[in-house]
Amino acid sequence: MDKINNVISASYIGKPISNTVMYISKKIEKQLFNLRNVTGCLIFCENSIEVPKELLETNTFIMTSNPQLEYSRYVNSIASRIETENRSRKYTLTKDGYYVGENVKIGKNAYIEPLCLIDHDVIIGDNAHIFTGSKIRRAIIGDNFVAFENSVVGSYGFTMATDESGAKVRIPTLGKVIIGNNVEAGMLCNIAVGSGGNTIIDDNVKIDAFVHIAHDVHLEHDVEIPAGAIIGGFVTVQNNVFIGINATVRNRITIGEKAIVGMGSVVTKDVSANTTVVGNPARLFEKESK
């Protein structure tokens, strides 16, 4: 029980962190091996999974028929405490016409336009330009960041569990958005925080208008995403990938380095490096021979 009481943050079974809470269902049972390198975790585990003895000795498992639901109830208590603490904190209207929360760090030469919100504990590097109407929450951002009009960084992730009555219950998202240097987020772009771990956007990523980046996505460096694309939760997009206009990438997909996803494509399976996929569902594109 002492182990459980020490757990105050969450992580994802795909990239677990010691002393965090997470859940694992039968469909991702193969990721149990990731727990070999962590200790002190609290894992809500589907009771049809056979947990190796060595993992039982280093972590605490709660076996249940509905691990998502039990996990959501546990992290709800953490989220409620954080929300209560934040409600007692103050926002300040700056002379430049935007609101800033407590414990915010903004680098040199940053320009933040009126009607923006920079929430508590946000860190923004040097030379940022945050256009009017944008909101930045639960984020750590590098240098030369641009957020165009009405973009949102750090929105609540969309993850659900089902309770005993069949009703949908929202699972709190406790992570952050971690953004590197020279990143752009287009107008009305939405980037959600991590559900367990963090949503990560590496250096030189360019995101156009109306793009949705879901919770726990990792965009590696030099990724380019034009308007209207949707990237589902826990997706990894490797270096130098191009994702076309209005493409949709299903959750838990990996898109390999230097791959191209064609305009309007619906990606339902992993995409190999240095390939082009098109269509719905997306398939390997092969040029016609002449």
Salient structural properties:
single chain; 290 residues; globular
Strand order of the largest sheet: 4-5-8-11-14-19-22-25-28-31
Beta-strand proportion? 25-35%
Helix/strand/pairing category? mainly beta
The helix tally amounts to 3
Q: Can you summarize the main beta sheet? A: 10 strands, mixed
Question: How much helical structure, as a percent, in the residues?
Answer: 10-25%
C-alpha termini separation: 69 Å
The number of distinct β-strands equals 33
Please state the overall shape, judged from the principal axes of the Cα atoms.
Answer: globular
Low-pLDDT regions: none
Radius of gyration: 20 Å
Mean pLDDT: 93
Can you put this structure into words, describing what you see?
With 290 residues, the protein is mainly β. The protein contains 3 helices and 33 strands. It has a 10-stranded mixed β-sheet with strand order 4-5-8-11-14-19-22-25-28-31, with no helix packed on it. An 8-stranded parallel β-sheet has the order 6-9-12-17-20-23-26-29, with no helix packed on it. A hairpin with a 4-residue loop joins strand 32 and strand 33. 37% of the residues are buried. The model has no long low-confidence stretch (mean pLDDT 93).
Architecture blueprint of SSEs:
Blueprint (H helix, E strand, L loop, with lengths): L1 H4 L15 E4 L17 E5 L6 H6 L1 E5 L2 H21 L4 E2 L5 E2 L4 E2 L4 E2 L4 E2 L4 E2 L4 E2 L4 E2 L2 E3 L4 E2 L4 E4 L4 E3 L5 E3 L6 E3 L4 E2 L4 E3 L6 E3 L4 E2 L4 E2 L4 E2 L4 E2 L4 E2 L4 E2 L4 E2 L4 E2 L4 E2 L4 E2 L4 E2 L8 E3 L4 E2 L6
Parallel strand pairs: 1-2, 2-3, 5-8, 6-9, 7-10, 8-11, 9-12, 10-13, 11-14, 12-17, 13-18, 14-19, 17-20, 18-21, 19-22, 20-23, 21-24, 22-25, 23-26, 25-28, 26-29, 27-30, 28-31, 30-32
Antiparallel strand pairs: 4-5, 15-16, 32-33
